[in-house]
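Regression test attached.
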Amino acid sequence: MPDSNDISDMRHWRQVSDDISFSCFSGEDNLMTIKFIGAAIAGIALSTGPTFAQEGNIKIGFPVFLSGAAAGPFGQPEKEAAELLIEALNAGTVPAPYATKGIAGKTVEATFVDEAANAVTEYRNLIERDKVDAVVGYTSSGNCKSVAPLAEDMKTLTVFVDCGTPQIFEEIVTEPTYLFRTGPTGTIDSVGAARYFQDSGMDLTRVAGINQNYAWGQDAWRDFTQSLIALDTGSEIVTEQFPKVYAGQYGAEVSALLTSTPTAVHTSFWGGDLEAFLLQSAPRGLFARSNVLMTCGEALFPRLADQIPEGAIIGARGPYSVFAPENDLSTWFNAAYEEKFGQKPTYPAWKMAQAIFGLKAAWEKAGEDADTAAVAAAFKNLEFETPAGTVKMAIGNGHQAIQGIAYGRYKKDADGNPGVEDVISYSAECVNPPNDMMAAEWIEAGFPNSTCE
Amino acid sequence: MLKLIAILLDGLSYSAWLFLVAVGLTLIYGVMRILNIAHGAFYAIGAYACATALGLYYGAGWSGAGAFLVMGLTAIATGIVVGLAIERGVLRRLYGRDEVLMVLVTYALFLILEDATKMIWGVESYFVYQPYAYFGFIDVGGLPYQVYDLLVVAVAIATGLALWLWLTRARMGRMMIAVVADREISAAMGINVPRIFAITFAIGTVLAALAGVVTAPKIAVAPGIGVEVIILAFAVVVIGGLGSIPGAALGAVIAGFARAVSVHLAPEFELFAIYAVMAIVLAIRPYGLFAAQGERKI
């Protein structure tokens, strides 16, 4: 989660605490403060009206992590994907249905800001200082939660790329107009993981979890264990480990997992924490003793492919990367990214590409001269093509995307490239709640109205 | 029984790591009265330097135990170069100033060094896992345990003993203790106090770099690793008493075992186990377990 290298990691340190506090806040104070700031800014915005900054160009602000621990695993691939797509879109070299130049015939300009800085301030800067026409970005759920009300107040077209919390459209902005999220919520990771364990016939009698101790890890583990209950697996939870995010040292947690003798282990670790956990647990035989499922495991492929034990269960937080369907867009994206940056794109890059394609599709549906409100209206309930297949803005009143998910066991191919086998894919309708239900309620109720093939 | 073995091994292993992380911080404070927030950045630089050095080592086709020699030399070289550069370039001009000012100065240095590491090494993670896997694991009563983690315990004990012997037996170490007792009298007796400060700061930096070096093979060396470490190091030295090396050792053992017990018996409390111990110690002995009010010890 993580480049404007011009800000310090101390700022990131503060950001981590902000993330956690924002992720956990339930009191009225923070919300009221945000709403108050938002209302004040909205007054200014209304006085000038939501118009596009420059004739002939579309300016997009990209808040991605450019510093801190999330810069490498998230910010960098997201920024690279955005740079690649903007260059290709402006040159008109993207395959159909995005073969037309730019967005709605206009050249796209990019402004990158550091998500590790104060999210609300930087968001406001993008709109008031940089005069962007749309904002596309955000990885941290904490940042998404703080920016979401502001996006509506400032009437700015805003597309969240990655942040996983379902709370955005369930609790924070329940009647959205300008805010969209083109990436699926974290719900699909947990539901898909439970289903994969069960459908693969794995032993689920003794289940353990190791997840980061903040909203992301806690929600992922809660949804996973609730899904096991809903699937009636009869599992016993033998240990629940919640180390601090960015802890780096997992020797004791690995010992706790080993001594608990689980048959299945779930982790939603990401970034450096996931990498360190792999390095410290695999040599001690955890993967040999238990079926270990890593919901973000695909992000390990570029740099630690040789360290992942074969048979480890890998997810990519959606139908991305090795789980992506074969189509013209995925073939082009994989090849163009690898040619430009020397390695295959990881799932954050796929999600960024998806967000930009969604924005282009909505804008072009609205028409060349459409204003912000018209583009937002066109975005609502949109179905659009991406390298990861068709994305449906089906929940969150048409503002939240749903996609399927797949898991598979890690196996290198004959050339030594990282890959997966025993893949099971779940459709979007199988792992996402319907529009009128909150994710946690849906899981607890036993996945009503889900359609699994 | 297996759980008890795990708690003992994990407590010992984590305590050793905490001691390595904290001992340089407490040494510098004990002698120089500088609460060195840049300590976390020195740790990170040590880890990055280790990643680079081992990258070159393995890249040249070498392997085997020579990597451990490279790690040791990297810690020493990095610590001496960075420590002396900071001490001579910045801190020397500020001696005698208020302790709070020095905290702000080292905080600024932390920010600068963190950005400098990003400029040099970028934001990508670095991996040098070969030394961690080199000795494999041993089975301790049914629990597989990495030999490398046990070696870190040995390194921590050796470091603590070497430091203690140097301070109590070596001429330079005794001069250092004299400076701790009274800076002005020491200077009047002919001790070159600025030189002692420079040596102390370099040793403290070498110790921080050593902690980074021994940690690098088991983590992703990435931006931000110094932030986590400085918080833990402060907790350890506060428990033991600022400026006290035996205090740092005891603080590390208490904090390490508090965390290990928590992880195995009550994982929901793991997040604040160390800080709960720190709060209890501060409530009972506000100056830490080994530091007496109004005194400075190393």
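Expected vs. actual: identical. The first strand of chain A starts at residue 57 and ends at 64.
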